[in-house]
Every structure is written in structure tokens, then in C-alpha cells.
Design a protein that fits this description.
Strand content: 15-25%
Structural class: alpha/beta
Largest sheet: 7 strands, mixed
Number of helices: 10
Order of helices and strands: HHEEHEHEHEEEEEHEHHEHHEE
Shape: globular
Number of domains: 2
CATH class of the largest domain: Alpha Beta
Helix content: 25-40%
Number of strands: 13
Length: 272
């Protein structure tokens, strides 16, 4: 996977070797130099990573601590649904890990629409598109998805971004709908990770989701029920938004979803 990857792995092995792992003062002193070296060395080509043993993705140096075992259960379910020529929507694409893996899989005959409202994440996402040579395959949409066009406030921290339909102290972002983003095209797979806005995204995609010839045959949704009360979502309303459009809803292990009571992932599938 390249000399830079081998160098990095060698440094990691040395850092955690039985003899040297207790030398924290030494590593603390060397870390700034090492970080600067890795950033400079990877500036043009990035760092190659193999995620979950299946997908090679080039990442920016600042994300090098991202573990190569990443959401393995989710990863294998969605990646098994993607092939050359597939069309994928990644809603809440963050820095683009899934979008880049999808892009490599779908190839030049496919399309990935990466939707992300956070300005900081957008910078990394767009850089990852270039780093992986996926211009023309991965399209970045700088917006949040909701049930109507408009504006919102985006509050961010180191771990996540949270959209609020009311004004606040966050960054002002544009809102559009899934139907507008889908642009009358056919899509095969959709990921949704929007920190509580899940039902809003679905409600803004009534035309797409009710059209058997165009709708994704799989929707992977990261659900955040702890954030639903403020938005007006309930377990029943969330499931209704899927079932009324012909989707069956299951957990990752294949068991049916009767109610959504905690954070996790659900998989909605339909026939085309």
C-alpha cells in the first residue's frame, strides 16, 4: 500500500513495542515533528487505508487516527448493496469516508451524491473527493435536507453537528429537500446520518420514496431518538414515514423493528 503506509505502520509498531511503549515523554517530544512529517508527506497523495478489510480509501493526514475497523456491521450491509454503476445518496456525509468508498465501488458509470451542511466538514469532504480522484463520480451538495426549503442554524462540536430549524448561535445553512436533491433520477441506496432530523429528510422525499421505479431499494438510517422530542418525531411517526412508502424496516441483524427506542441503525428495504 506504499512506502508512506509502511513507514507509518513501522512507527506505530515501535511506539507500542514492549521496550518503548513506556517512553511517553519521548513520544510527547517527538509527536509534533512526526505529525508535521506525516502531513507534509501525505499532502498530495494522502494516506491509504483499508477499511473493514474490503475498501481502500485515501484519507487526509488529520484523519489518520481513524480506525480501519469502522462500523463493520453497517459497512458490510451497505457495501454489499453497491456495485459498479450504482447510484447512492449519502445524507450527512461528514468528511466523506462512506462517500469515497462508494465512489470507488460505483466507478465512472455510477454516481454518489454526498450531502453535507457543515462548512468545516465540507472542506474535508471536497478535499477527499480530489484526493481519491473521484471528481465526476462523487458530487457534493452543500446543504442540509429537511421537509421544506429554507434556512437553519447548525450547532457544531468536535463530535457532531446538529441542525435546528430555529435560529440560534450556530452557523446559518441552507436547507433543501430530498426530492429537490434527487432531481428526478433513480437511486439505489441511501444513507442517512443527521443527528435527529431523520424523519424530516424522509418527509422531504415523498415523490422519490413513493416512486417504485426511482426510490432506493435500501435506506440505512442512523436513528437518534434522544433528539426527536424537540423536532416532533416519535418512533411511530418515523416508522410510518417509511412504511407508508412501501418499506419494511429491520434491525442490522435482520429482526423486524416494532419500535425505535434507542440510538442505533435501522435498515429499510423495498422492491423495485
Amino acid at each position: 500500500m506504499g512506502l508512506l503506509y509502511q513507514l507509518e505502520q513501522t512507527c506505530i509498531r515501535l511506539r507500542h513495542s514492549a521496550v518503548l511503549k513506556r517512553c511517553s515523554p519521548l513520544w510527547d517530544a517527538l509527536r509534533p515533528c512526526y505529525n508535521a512529517l506525516m502531513k507534509r508527506a501525505s499532502q498530495s497523495a494522502g494516506l491509504m487505508r483499508n477499511f473493514n478489510g474490503t475498501d481502500n480509501v485515501r484519507i487526509l493526514a488529520e484523519f489518520r487516527n481513524l480506525h480501519e475497523t469502522y462500523e463493520p456491521e453497517v459497512w458490510h450491509v451497505v457495501m454489499n448493496h453497491v456495485r459498479a454503476g450504482s447510484r447512492v445518496i449519502d445524507v450527512g456525509a461528514h468528511m466523506g469516508l462512506y462517500a469515497m468508498a462508494f465512489g470507488h465501488r460505483v466507478g465512472p458509470d455510477g454516481q454518489v451524491l454526498a450531502v453535507e451542511p457543515d462548512p468545516a466538514n465540507l472542506v474535508s469532504l471536497e478535499r477527499h473527493v480530489v484526493l481519491n480522484g473521484l471528481q465526476g463520480v462523487v458530487t457534493v451538495l452543500a446543504a442540509g435536507l429537511s421537509d421544506a426549503e429554507g434556512e437553519a442554524s447548525l450547532a457544531t462540536n468536535d463530535m457532531q453537528s446538529c441542525v435546528s430549524s430555529s435560529s440560534g448561535d450556530g452557523v446559518a445553512i441552507r436547507l433543501t429537500t430530498l426530492d429537490a436533491a434527487a432531481a428526478g433520477e433513480r437511486w439505489d441506496l441511501m444513507l442517512i446520518d443527521v443527528e435527529g432530523f431523520e424523519e424530516k429528510v424522509l418527509r422531504g422525499g415523498r415523490q422519490l420514496l413513493s416512486d417504485p421505479s426511482r426510490r432506493p431499494t435500501m435506506i440505512m438510517i442512523e436513528v437518534h431518538p434522544y433528539a426527536w422530542a424537540e423536532i416532533g418525531t416519535t418512533s411511530d411517526s418515523m416508522l410510518q414515514a417509511l412504511r407508508e412508502n412501501g418499506y419494511s424496516v429491520r434491525h442490522l441483524d435482520g429482526s423486524p423493528v416494532d419500535a425505535i427506542e434507542k440510538y442505533g441503525h435501522i435498515v429499510a428495504t423495498s422492491e423495485r
